[in-house]
Amino acid sequence: MNDIKLALLGSEGAGKSAVLVRFLTKRFIGEYASNANSLYHKRLSIEGRLLHLEVFDPCSQSGESKCILEEPVEWADGFIVVYNISDQMSFLNAQNILCQIKEARGEEMDKMDIPICLVGNKQDLCHARQVFEEEGYALAQEHRCHFQEVSAAEDYLEISNLFTKLIRHVMDHLKYRADLHRYSGSKSIAKLINNVFGKRRKSV
Ligand SMILES: Nc1nc2c(ncn2[C@@H]2O[C@H](COP(=O)(O)OP(=O)(O)OP(=O)(O)O)[C@@H](O)[C@H]2O)c(=O)[nH]1
């Protein structure tokens, strides 16, 4: 069974837990405990493969600019970065988080895009919108990631689709990483053999 590790990141109150609980239970509860880091587990099957999904939902800290990221950024295979479309600050924070992911995983990103989905949540509050959808698209384009606006309060299908898409991307990414590892391993073995036997042949 494959393990897939996702981290949900974003400002306090952006709706990270609501988005996750919607995906896991199909329900919107309204209020979620936010005083502790939580790790959720789910088994699911995608493309006939059984997966063990782990999703890390960190407890937000009060200082927006503070980095709570170090651990999840190293740990996760993929990210969901959530902002609230009716809160400009949460969008700026999402921008900041995307930059921090790039900083931490830049070397990997040069070879293949890290699976990330930027999510503009609370689409049902569009009367109070502070972030245009185009700004979300532009930011996602800049960071080479997926983008979607959703409403955890009103949608299940869109949220379910975005998780499925992201998990597929993670599966491709993990396969690519394993192939790369195998390839560089076999290349260094070939080099070693060449060094040993190549030199020996010369001295005969
Ligand atoms: N109108 C509306 N409210 C939402 C939506 N998603 C979440 N909320 C509300 O926004 C508030 C914060 O949601 P949470 O899911 O706790 O946000 P969070 O990002 O996990 O917050 P922390 O755990 O404090 O970091 C709650 O009162 C939710 O009911 C949405 O799509 N629409």
From TrEMBL:
Enzyme Commission identifier(s): 3.6.5.2
Keyword GTP-binding part of the UniProt annotation: yes
Protein origin, superkingdom: Eukaryota
Keyword check for Hydrolase: yes
GO MF entries: G protein activity; GTP binding
InterPro entries xrefs: P-loop_NTPase, Ras-related_GTPase, Small_GTPase
Keywords, comma-separated and alphabetical: GTP-binding, Hydrolase, Nucleotide-binding
Catalytic activity: GTP + H2O = GDP + phosphate + H(+)
Family: Belongs to the small GTPase superfamily. Ras family.
Protein known as: small monomeric GTPase
Gene name tied to this protein: rerglb
